[in-house]
Amino acid sequence: MTGDWMRDERPRVAAERILDVAAQLYVENGINAVGMAEVARAAGCSRATLYRYFDSRQALQLAFVHREARRIGALIAQDVSGTADPQNVIVEAMLTAIRLVRRDPTLAAWFQLGDSGLAAQIAHSSEVIESLGAAFLGQAGVGGEETSRRARWLVRAIVSLLTVPGVDDDDERAMIEQFVAPVITGPRERDVRSI
User: FRET partner for 67 with CA separation of 20 to 30 A, picked from 1, 77, 120, 127?
Assistant: First the structure.
């Protein structure tokens, strides 16, 4: 039985609705506890209909993470748009990402005990998340052949702080300023060898 909301809607709108329903279930039950049957039931559609939009539970989770990463990425880009210093771009981008995730229950759910491993796995293997990290590096003037590796490291540092927070906001800022930003914006490995 397909819900009325899906009959005349475009496929993109239906997929977005399914992602919204999944987000709420993730908050209520935890990421690992939500299966396709629960999402279909909450969305008012059959499992067959759900599988037309997302061919697996992992595909649904990845689509949700990518949608939210793009949204958060746009907000971060606005937040750091006037920042000129490369290290400040990295610091502010990371702190903004962490703050936005923690404030949004649908995102914070991914970093709860038991679900954080899944978040880390998706973050480390997602081309979308890596591309967003690379975009912030580009905005900070950090580029070159190591951009992809630096972007992955940037994402790992964010996931680490979301999973195991610092003592407080000041502590996290200090860690990022001291240990993350200088490494990410520092000279490339090849340049260091030539010094």
Answer: 1
- 41 shares a domain with 8: yes
DSSP result, 57-126: HHHHHHHHHHHHHHHHHHHHHHHHTT--SHHHHHHHHHHHHHHHHHH-HHHHGGGSTTTHHHHHHHHHH-
Number of residues written out for the chain: 195
Q: Is residue 193 part of a domain?
A: no
The rounded distance, in Å, linking the Cα atoms of 47 and 52 is 9
Q: What is the pLDDT of residues 77-117, one digit of tens each?
A: 999 888 889 999 999 999 999 999 999 999 999 988 777 78
Q: Which two tokens stand for residue 89?
A: 């771009």
What proportion of the chain, given as a percentage, has pLDDT over 90? 61
Residues spanned by the domain of 120 = 60-186
In the chain, count of helices (H) and strands (E)? 13, 0
